[in-house]
């Protein structure tokens, strides 16, 4: 009984993408990174859902929206365990996991207030020096931004 | 290296570093050569640094080059709100190479991406100052006849000192053993120790000068600045611990030399200056030759 209630909380989609296993507190970062606020497609967001893995998780269902791998990997910074289901005709046709890319552009803010990217109109650019712990080395000031100080632009 | 900017010491491979040091030897033998007669070099100092600017300008002048530029940004259009990008793009039109010093970190890397001529970074905030590193290495090689297998002591502010960080990275190509002497608050950051761990290089940490200084080939002194301490009492406690005095040199090795990026305040007692092991003023002179090597190499003349 409980299980069927859970299933009802987010309705199924015919075609599109489901992003599951997003940490609940990263939902709005994911929305921002993927630019979902600018899309006119049907979307369902669920958050603070129970999850054995994450404690509280969020889920996004997007009708008729599909992403390139490069775009999707951009969310790996804030949702490294995210799982993607590509849906066609109500069926999962592909499952994907995300991977933190080697370089990251224009997503995160450099932690260093004296960095050029925080002082002039310069796009941020980082080299990922640790994928496990999330450590980003600024291409410009060479300082490390870690997960604790990560701010999404 | 031709036409390539020098922003960070990591931009040069070991081979390229060695080539600059070899060229600097030539310039030391003959610092007055008409090699830059047909070149205009801009020295853009967005914040004042008299020593570095004069060293560059001396290097250029001795090679017959023309210099344009400014020694602080107060009289430039930066004051009118011009972006760094616009300043650099405009000045690129007037010269063959830009030497720049800027208080913002990463400014030189950014400038190298928008400029149509190569950039030489003469210091971007607390980030990089690669020509200082190269002149330090030239001084080490000249006094020790080698860069390999040396024992280098770094003393003072090892947390914020960009010169020691860059020197550590550059010398890690040469099987160096490091000894770090600093107050607890100003210890060498973990990221640099990790770098040495990854390369399997040995390092030791101390909070005061020890008897081990007798093993040093190079003692690299830096200034412990009061403003780095959150607690002024801590500064008072340590301010005299990191001062090098003449009597401390008695048991040191014959070949040992004392380096300092200058300006010095009180961290090397003046009674050390006359000692054969004091090398910091010659080190500053070496900066001219090293910069001549860097400029001519980037301009494709050498």
Brief overview, please?
By secondary structure, chain A is mainly β. Chain A is built from 3 helices and 9 strands.
**What letter string, H or E per element, gives the SSE order of chain B?**
HEHEHEHEHEHEHEEHEH
Helix percentage range of chain B: 25-40%
| Ends distance of chain B | 10 Å
User: What sort of overall outline of chain B do the alpha carbons produce when their principal axes are compared?
Assistant: globular
Order of helices and strands of chain A: HEHEEHEEEEEE
What does this protein look like?
- The complex is a heterodimer of chains A (153) and B (302).
- Chain A has helices at residues 2-9, 27-33, 69-73, and strands at residues 16-23, 43-51, 55-63, 83-88, 91-97, 103-105, 125-130, 135-138, 144-146.
- Chain A has 153 residues and is mainly beta.
- Chain A starts with a helix and ends in a 7-residue tail after the last strand.
- Chain A has 2 domains: 2-97, 2-Layer Sandwich (Alpha-Beta Plaits); 103-149, SH3 type barrels (Roll), CATH 2.30.30.
- Chain B has 2 domains: 31-128, Rossmann fold; 131-284, Rossmann fold (3-Layer(aba) Sandwich), CATH 3.40.50.1370.
- With 302 residues, chain B is an alpha/beta fold.
- A 5-stranded parallel β-sheet of chain B has the order 7-6-5-8-9, with helices on one face.
- In chain B, helix 1 (14-29) packs across helix 9 and helix 5 packs across helix 6 (162-171).
- Helices cover 35% and strands 15% of the residues of chain B.
- The chains are: A mainly beta (153), B alpha/beta (302).
Characteristic key phrases:
heterodimer; A: mainly beta; Alpha-Beta Plaits; SH3 type barrels; 2 domains; five-stranded antiparallel sheet; four-stranded antiparallel sheet; B: 302 residues; alpha/beta; Rossmann fold; five-stranded parallel sheet; four-stranded parallel sheet; 9 helices; 9 strands; 15% strand; globular
């Amino acid at each position: 009984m409980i299980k069927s209630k859970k299933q009802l909380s987010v309705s199924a989609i015919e075609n599109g993408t489901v992003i599951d296993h997003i940490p609940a507190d990263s939902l709005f970062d994911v929305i921002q990174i993927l630019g979902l606020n600018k899309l006119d497609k049907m979307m369902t967001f669920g958050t603070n859902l129970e999850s054995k893995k994450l404690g509280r998780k969020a889920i996004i269902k997007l009708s008729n929206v599909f992403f390139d791998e490069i775009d999707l990997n951009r969310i790996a910074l804030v949702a490294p365990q995210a799982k993607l289901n590509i849906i066609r005709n109500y069926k999962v046709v592909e499952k994907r996991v995300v991977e933190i890319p080697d370089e990251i552009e224009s997503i995160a803010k450099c932690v260093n207030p004296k960095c050029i990217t925080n002082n002039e109109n310069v796009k941020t650019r980082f080299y990922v020096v640790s994928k496990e712990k999330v450590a980003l080395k600024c291409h410009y000031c060479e300082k490390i931004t870690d997960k604790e100080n990560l701010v999404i632009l | 290296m031709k036409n390539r900017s020098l922003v960070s010491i990591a931009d040069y491979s070991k081979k390229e570093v060695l080539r600059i040091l070899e060229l600097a030897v030539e310039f030391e033998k003959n610092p007055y050569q008409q090699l830059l007669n047909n070149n205009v070099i801009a020295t853009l100092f967005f914040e004042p640094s008299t020593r570095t600017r004069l060293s560059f300008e001396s290097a250029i002048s001795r090679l017959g080059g023309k210099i344009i530029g400014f020694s602080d940004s107060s009289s430039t259009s930066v004051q009118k709100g011009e972006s760094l990008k616009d300043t650099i793009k405009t000045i690129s039109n007037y010269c063959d190479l830009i030497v720049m010093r800027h208080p913002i970190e990463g400014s030189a890397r950014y400038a190298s991406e928008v400029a149509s001529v190569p950039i030489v970074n003469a210091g971007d905030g607390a980030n990089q100052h690669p020509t200082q590193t190269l002149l330090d290495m030239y001084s080490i090689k000249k006094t020790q006849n080698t860069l390999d297998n040396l024992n280098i002591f770094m003393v003072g502010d090892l947390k914020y000192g960009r010169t020691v960080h860059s020197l550590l990275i550059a010398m890690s190509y040469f099987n160096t053993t490091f000894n770090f002497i600093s107050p607890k608050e100003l210890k060498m950051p973990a990221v640099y120790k990790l770098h040495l761990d990854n390369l399997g290089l040995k390092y030791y940490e101390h909070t005061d000068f020890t008897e081990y200084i007798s093993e040093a080939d190079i003692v690299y002194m830096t200034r412990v600045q009061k403003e780095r301490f959150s607690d002024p009492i801590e500064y008072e406690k340590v301010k005299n611990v990191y001062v090098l005095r003449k009597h401390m040199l008695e048991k040191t090795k014959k070949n040992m030399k004392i380096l300092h990026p200058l300006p010095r305040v009180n961290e090397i007692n003046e009674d050390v200056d006359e000692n054969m092991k004091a090398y910091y003023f010659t080190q500053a002179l070496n900066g001219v030759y090293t910069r001549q090597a860097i400029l001519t190499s980037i301009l494709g003349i050498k």
